[in-house]
Amino acid sequence: QVQLVESGGGLVQAGGSLRLSCAASGRTVSNYGMGWFRQAPGKEREFVSGINWNGGMTVYVDSVKGRFTISRDNAKNTVYLQIDSLKPEDTAIYYCAVSSVMGVLPRPDIYNYWGHGTQVTVSS
Fold it and tell me: Residues 9-33: pLDDT tens digits?
């Protein structure tokens, strides 16, 4: 029912910034939590950040706290991930996903719609 398209990835030098966008279509996602995940080569997909239905609650994995900021614009049916002070270890494909509930949880099993990802590559 919901299609997600990520954009904004690219090749950036360490210390640079990117803003990822996730545009939802087909159905509104304003009543549901949203999450960002990433998967680096040779590693399993990991939770990066999440935001609840109205943006009042956000959560981040420890490795990105202070550098990443998740936000959403429900009028545009879009969620964002502002990434600052990029590090080489941030290199991964970044995926957005829609939660099955209004809140936000780090467990991937409660996210029922996924985008196809956008590549973030950080060079030294």
Answer: 999 999 999 999 999 999 999 999 9
Answer yes or no: are the C-beta atoms of 104 and 47 closer than 8 Å. Answer: no
**Residue burial 50-87, b: 16+ Cβ < 10 Å; e: rest:** bbbbeeeeebbbeebeeebbbebebeebbbbbebeebe
SS (H, E, C) 92-107: EEEEEEEECCCCCCCC
d(CA 96, CA 4): 7
Query: What is the longest distance spanned by two Cα atoms in the chain?
Result: 40
Helix (H, G, I), strand (E, B) or coil at 49: strand
Judge contact between 47 and 62, C-beta under 8 A.
no
